[in-house]
Design brief:
Blueprint: E1 3-6, E2 12-18, E3 21-27, E4 34-39, E5 42-48, H1 58-69, E6 78-82, H2 88-96, E7 101-106, H3 109-118, E8 126-131, H4 134-139, E9 146-151, H5 166-175, E10 176-188, H6 193-203, E11 208-213, H7 215-218, E12 224-231, H8 237-245, E13 252-255, H9 256-263
Parallel strand pairs: 6-7, 6-9, 7-8, 9-10
Antiparallel strand pairs: 1-2, 2-3, 3-4, 4-5, 10-12, 11-12, 11-13
Helix pairs in contact: 1-2, 1-8, 6-9
Length: about 290
């Protein structure tokens, strides 16, 4: 059952119990039709209905940069989103690359219903939202279908174990066309064991990798998000570095030898050894 709370002279906050916990859509005081999605109090994503090309969160900006650089400006893409949230990145691609065809796989059906009801999609956007587990949904996509796959899947603020293995990343590569890109939003904190393992895992499948994150996260100073980009072609590292450095919360890009050194000899993860990403510390979202 949805509950609403009126903001001061503005739109109401909406809360509803979904499969993943208590979802809240909280109005943005600075943007008349901006909304933040929180699950159990943890911020998940932000949407501006007036400007779907606006990305508030740092990790979503980094994913947006990757979408911008995945093909020449304005060229339509075929994009698969594993994890839907408030459909922020699907909206972004639709706004910046008209006529793109997108599929979203999201396991939390009540969350999808809440988002589509409160933050409706433009009827002209080619976005199809499928219910179900991300890996099961990935298995149904034809070989070579996607130009870009974005994985942003969290259950209880943790990436599920079965979405962290070499077998999973192998399925990702099957679905990507030659030259396509895979971008994964990962969360970790000191000692960064999970993040290092994910780099090693992706390296077994893709020859080209880079990682973008807040420098404090890369130094193991705090818990946070890092975006891993992988492909079978050379990556636009210089432009990605320039864009990340220019963000409101500047990010750093690791690539090549520096990324190999960062991974520190971590072992690739398999289905047999995979574990979920670590839970964020209690103070992570204060």
């Amino acid at each position: 059952m949805a509950k609403s709370r009126r903001g001061r002279g503005g739109p109401e906050s909406v809360t509803e119990t979904v499969d993943g916990g208590v979802a809240e859509l909280r109005p943005d005081r600075d943007r008349p039709r901006g909304w933040t999605l929180l699950i159990d109090g943890a911020p998940q994503s932000h949407v501006d209905l007036d400007d779907p090309a606006y990305l508030e969160f740092s990790y979503q900006r980094r994913l947006g940069h990757i979408a911008d650089l995945a093909a020449p400006p304005g060229k339509p893409l075929q994009v698969l989103h594993l994890g839907g949230g408030a459909l922020t990145l699907a909206r972004y691609v639709a706004a910046t690359r008209p006529r793109s065809t997108q599929q979203v796989v999201e396991i939390d059906a009540p969350l999808v219903q809440l988002v589509r009801r409160q933050l409706p999609l433009d009827s002209g956007w080619r976005i199809r939202v499928r219910g179900g587990d991300a890996r099961a949904g990935l298995a149904k996509v034809p070989d070579g279908w996607a130009d870009l796959i974005i994985a942003d899947v969290f259950g209880g603020a943790r990436t599920p174990a079965h979405l962290t293995s070499t077998e999973f990343v192998g399925e990702v590569r099957r679905v990507l066309r030659p030259g396509g890109c895979y971008a994964a939003n990962l969360a970790d904190g000191p000692p960064l064991r999970f993040l290092r393992g994910q780099i090693a895992t992706a390296r077994t499948v893709f020859p080209e990798l880079c990682l973008t994150a807040d420098p404090a996260v890369l130094r193991g100073k705090r818990f946070g998000n890092a975006v891993l980009l992988a492909s079978d072609r050379a990556l636009p590292v210089a432009e990605l570095t320039r864009r990340a450095a220019g963000d409101p919360h500047a990010g750093r890009v690791e690539h090549g030898r520096a990324l190999l050194d960062f991974s520190g000899g971590a072992a690739p993860v398999t289905d047999a050894t995979a574990v979920a990403s670590p839970a964020p510390p209690a103070a992570a979202f204060d």
